[in-house]
Structures are given as C-alpha cells and as structure tokens.
Amino acid sequence: MDEHLYTKAIAFSEIILQQNRVEQLRDLSKQLLKKISSLKKGVCVIHGIRGSGKTTLLTELYQKEKHTLFVTAEHLLKYGIDLLDFLHYALAKGHSTYIIDEIHALPTWEKDIKLFYDETKSKIIVSGSSALALKVKGSELARRASFYELKPLSFREYILFKTGKRLPQITLKELLDIQRRQELEQHIRPYIPYFDTYTQFDALPAALFEKNPDVYLNILERIARFDLTSIQNIDAHYLTAVFQAMKIISTSPPGEVSYTGLSSALRTNIKFVREMIYSLSQTGILHLVSPSGRGTSSVRKEEKILMPLSFRSALCTSYGVAPPKGSIREDFFVQHVPGSTYLKTGVQRRTPDFVVQDHIFEVGGPSKGSKQIQGMKNAYLVKEVLTTGEKEIPLYLFGLLY
Q: How distant, in Å, are the alpha carbons of 2, 108, 222, 233 from that of 230?
C-alpha cells in the first residue's frame, strides 16, 4: 500500500467529514447512533436514499468511536486503491473501527469486507443506497451484518427542526385508539400549516438544510447515472427510459401507473419496464407497495408505484405541472407506515386502500367519503383534515410514527 495514496484518500475524506458536521442530529439518526455505538464488532450496513443524512450519521459515529478510520469509497475508486489492501494498511496503523461511505461505488466490496472481518473481527460500518442492503443479504456477508435504514425526515422530525417542538413518537396501536387520537390531534393542530411545505419541499434533510431548490433533481441525476450502475449495466437508452418513466410516475394521480401503461408509453416490453422499476426501487427513488393477499393471486398483481416525499413535487415543478395531491398523500402514508400493502380488486378496478396488520386504510382529501370502506371490518378513513370520527384518522398523525 502506497503511503502517499493512503494519506491522500484520508485527507479528502476528512474534507467530507468537515462538510457534514451538524449542530443538531435528527431523531432517527440519534436512535441508529445509539444502536450502532453499542456494538463492539460486526458489520453495520446503513442504507437509504441519497440526501437522507447517511454521511452526517457516519460523521457522528466517527467522532464517537475510538481508533476510527473514515474514508469514502469514491476516493478509493478514484485513486485505484484496493479496499482490502487499504484496510490491512489501516489495521497496521492501529485502527480498530472502519467507516466506509458510499461503499457501493466499489464493485466487489462485499467480498473484501467479508475477508477482512473474518480475519480481524473488527467493527466495520458501511453506507450506501437501498440496493446495498439487498446485496449484502444475498451474500455470504449476511450473517455477519446488521442493517439500519435511514429514511427521509418524518413529519414529526420536520416539526422539531422548524419549531423546536418535540411531538411524541407513537405506535400504530395508539393511533387506532380514539381517545389517544383525540389527544394527539390537539398536539399536532398548531403545526398543520407546515404540512404542505414538508411534503412538497423539505422532506429530505439535504433539501431542508441546503436550501437548494434543485437538490431533488440533482439526486435523481446521480441515482440514474451512478447508483444504478452498481446494480446493472446501463446505456443511453436505459437512462432515457428512466427519466421518461419518472416523469410519468411523478405526474400521475393515484392508481394510474401500471407496467402495461409504462411499457406502451416507453415503447418497450413489460419485462424491461419491470426490471427498470425494480432497480429504481433498490436505489430508494421509488417505493413499491405489494398487493395484499397470498398465493398465486397476489403474485399476478402489480405493485403500486409511489415515491419518497418531496421528489414528486420537485419533478412536477420542473415539468411545469401541478403535483397530484392524491399521490402525495399516498407517498406520505407509505413512507410513515412500514409494511403497507394495498388492495386491488381486478385489472380494471383499482383502489387506494392500504392494508397494515389486518387494518384497512382509505387515504383521501378533506371531503373523502366512506363509501369504499363500508361493510369492511377494521377499516378507517384517513383524511387530510382534523377529524374526530371513530373510524376517521387525520393523515397528519401518521407523521408521528417515527
């Protein structure tokens, strides 16, 4: 290992650390920081979409851990440094904890990490896109690794940053209790005016703190041109299809995006569309919500395609069109409620209902009626308005789930 190259990679990585130091860490990052800091050894995989604060979390871990090395994989790639050689060299210098940012930039990183961990039983912390976790889970590294997802800001976290008010973090069970729900409505009432700004502009930490209106477009560009290459080979035709598909998805009302429709619009086959959409979901730029049900009937149904909050609005603004509010509401719900599936009654009949832990949720605007949930057990109407009905839940309250 060349000492000059080693020093150069560390020096440039130190600049990244300086740029990502913050005065206040988001709540989700604090929770992950506590969990990861408690571990003595193992491989910690931090994954999530670009701009969600992964490097900021790594910066905090670097300050908290002892005998720690921090490096960005992009700098190793730039200088042609072999990862395994680099780690062995750092070990000889007395480091015992290794933090590697954006590790998916290195094509065979998981093999090197496995070899190094098996040799040293060190603590290794890596970060990357959502595809990173899937790659690790499918490799020999899986049983050595623990996984931590860093999602965009929750509405609760956003309120804290904007106002200094810390609202309670709740469970879905609490939300289904009408008395508790009425208490929570009083807590959140003063902060409802922040809802539109949060969902349309500031859901990603990078956008909130950088104050750059183009941050979402820049992230999409980097995902398309760099992150996707860690999943598969792409060419100019593929990139064109990605940007066309994102335009269709971001501007479409709820339930109007299908693989067949995308295939027709892009003038390509459904197999290509399915693989492309799945790859985009691996980067975190799309959310695929599986159909509810079991067996072959659910397998034949398509996923509902949604987006992380604020990306839809940013893209629609760049296209000069108003973002579909119904789709933004569904983006909000799915981002805050893990494990959501959706109901689909047939090829020509789509419903926006979501199923979570045997409970059905119909998401809509202030005037949304209860027709679609009539006669359904454990069904609730989720409306973008404060309401006190026994079977009605304000959409805003789901923003307190993390």
A: 27, 10, 12, 8
Q: How far apart are CA 212 and CA 189, in angstroms?
A: 29
DSSP string, 360-397: EEEEE-TT--SGGGTT-TTEEEEESS----TTEEEGGG
Task: Copy the structure tokens of residue 169.
Answer: 């973090």
| Predicted confidence (pLDDT) at residue 350 exceeds the cutoff of 50 | no
Q: List beta partners, residue 227.
A: none
Q: Record the tokens describing residue 71, joined without a space.
A: 């490096």
**What does the alpha-carbon distance between residue 144 and residue 312 come to, in Å, rounded to a whole number?**
37
Q: Which residues contact 362 (CB under 8 A, 6 or more apart)?
A: 351, 352, 353, 368, 370, 372, 373, 379, 380, 381, 382
Provide the residue type at 130 as one letter.
S
**CA dist., res. 79 & res. 94, Å (int):** 23
How confident is the model over 164-174, as a mean pLDDT?
98
pLDDT tens for each residue of 43-92:
999 999 999 999 999 999 999 998 999 999 999 999 999 999 999 999 99
All structural domains of the chain, each given as residue ranges with its CATH number in brackets, are 3-149 (3.40.50.300), 156-400 (no CATH)
Structure tokens at 21: 């130091």
**pTM greater than the 0.85 cutoff:** yes
Q: Mean pLDDT throughout 116-131?
A: 94
